[in-house]
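Late entry, evening session. Most of the bench is empty. Finally got around to the prediction I had been postponing all week. Sequence below, unchanged from the version circulated by S.P.
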Amino acid sequence: MRCSNQSRALGSAAKAIARTLGLAAALALMATLPALAAKPVKKVDSIWTHPNYASLGIESIALLPAVSYDNNVKNEKTIESMFAQSLRPAGYRWVTPAVAKEMIRAGMGGDSALSAVDLAILRQGRVDSVTARRLCRTLRAQAVMSVRVDLFERNEVAWNQSGKPSTTVQVKAGLVDSTGRLVWSASGSETGEGPYHEAGAPTVGVKMSDGETTPITGEGGAPSFNEVVTRLFTRWMKDFPARATNATGAASAPDSAR
């Protein structure tokens, strides 16, 4: 009988310990939940639209020439072209960057006026309210869109190193209307990676650069800029407001490029 009582006592003690341990584990888990909830979620893009955009009646937009941190004209042209192509389905009447450049030169003071606009965009990612009003009058548009290229680089892996090649693009854009009011903005980046490159991979040839030869392997390279930029702008356009519909409810058709 005494053994039976001792067994029961031991069993009860074991259950009590288990319950205590279970409660302690639960309390420990609950203590970590606020920390997990507070962990910030990494944002790829930051996109903002004026809450009353639909009532502003914007139908025409001038796309200003793109600017870049390193004044790389080739990269600026790539961004201009691809951004304009991405925006086209929104249905606005567009003034292209090339036309905008000539109209600014003719109507606002030549190349010095262009330089002032570029400098403003480089400094703050968009034109200020006073400049926006002047630009809208000169370009005969209801809003102006600026684009700044903050990063545009392609990193290849050397033939004797291991790793993944990559291409990264970072861009900021801002839409300001004829009253000088910011009505839409976007900033973000996109990185594309190529296949893993193994050091010592078999070579398929050599290339000459600055009098030096470098082996060429059959490993894949970094993605093209067009591929990476397309992914970035495709995301942005999901949040870009389309031109307002007309009285019949049909979407207004875009005018041909000027």
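Two things to note before I forget:
The chain has six helices and nine strands.
The beta strands are 45-49, 60-63, 67-68, 93-95, 143-155, 166-177, 182-193, 203-209, 212-217.
Will write this up properly tomorrow.
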